[in-house]
Amino acid sequence: MATERQSKSWSIHTRSEIIAKYQIMERIGSGAYADVYRGRRLSDDLTVALKEIHDYQSAFREIEALQMLQGSPNVVVLHEYFWREDEDAVIVLEYLTTDLSTVISNAAKEGIPLPVGEMKRWMIQILSGLDSCHRNMIVHRDLKPSNLLISDSGILKLADFGQARILTEHGFDAFEENPPPCENDSSNNESSLHVRCENQEQGSSHEEYIGVSDELKTKRSVDDVDKDTNIPDGNTSCLATCTTSDMDNDPMRTSFSYEATEGEDRESGGFTSCVGTRWFRAPELLYGSINYGLEIDLWSLGCIFAELLTLKPLFPGTADIDQLSRIINVLGNLDERAWSDCSKLPDYGIISFSKVENPAGVEACLPNRSPDEVSLVKKLVCYDPARRATTMELLHDKYFIEEPLPVPVSELRVPLTRNTEDEDSVGGWQDYNDMGSDSDFDDFGPVNFTRTGTGFSIQFP
Ligand SMILES: Nc1ncnc2c1ncn2[C@@H]1O[C@H](COP(=O)(O)OP(=O)(O)OP(=O)(O)O)[C@@H](O)[C@H]1O
Q: Domain of life of the organism in this record (predicted)?
């Protein structure tokens, strides 16, 4: 697997259409689906980020969302992209030197809280970027500090749209609604496509873009057939675990079902609940919801705001059950008083926690912060998704017009580099990544299993 990733990631260096236009420099980052390189555009020496995406669906989602968000000042700029059959997609992005996780970890290392005026400016920029997404009905689904990139001049931009989806009234995005192209569709005859996103005629761009979309759709529908033969089409719940290896090792495997992240539940019109990074994942996702909306981003936003305020993650769960347990210890048990629809969550009846008599409350997680700051986080970190404040409501929150006022962007202290040294430390940023998590049941100690009419109920102490 590692060898495959490695050889794939080198393919960018051999792509003639790319090296004709860009000098590819060092690798600056690697995520679950992509390798990112610094590059230089030969025509004008502009520094860019070249993101080679190893997963066609992530590539499609990122391209689709970024095209829709062109012109949003707080969303990363997509300069152009390259798509070739049987090759990874390569997207060319504006280069951004650092990110919010570096801002937070630098301040944590210094042991000095972020000045309130700076914090407010970071928050406003995040809100503005997310507002652009939500106005376009794009749910990002993976908001976290390391996906909030920052330019030399302090402009913060939402990035990594590989898990983004466009919501429609039917729950599917345009990609889902379009039928796969016919076999003789001429737009699929192109073996190599290269699409520019800026300074070009709208018409030709759109046609080429649709061609790429069709190519991706065909490829995905073929791959989905393969997946369906391996993974039974279940309820798309990923309760208690989000990795296939966890499922394989789990003694309770038959009590819940699993769907790979790529396979959305088309039948029910829902999405997969296995999205985002655990620490920022909304409780409805942890309980297996597949009918969620923009509100899952608002929960993540609340966790990010809390982290800016305390320089520590709000809910650093080590597994999905531990994640839920931490949330419950703060907010109290999830019941119909907290959210009248909670019993409709797919895994609500399957998993239960002992009664938390005295939940700590959000204020206990934000020591020494002002009532306005606690109130801001509470507007987002609450069980009922409908009660979470929208980006527009938050942008008008009095917190941002009261002293100390947000500093101008030019006065923000911007780290000179991106911090990657924490990545190997225990409890560091690598914990944001779900891929290596162990079985939740092992992590959580003794549990009580009860046989029910529909399977098992799992009770955690
Ligand atoms: N436009 C950019 N400018 C500079 N660096 C970038 C840019 N885009 C991404 N990076 C770097 O590359 C890393 C991986 O990129 P990204 O998060 O987009 O990939 P991914 O595979 O989707 O990641 P993840 O596993 O977090 O979902 C980022 O954490 C960041 O350090």
A: Eukaryota
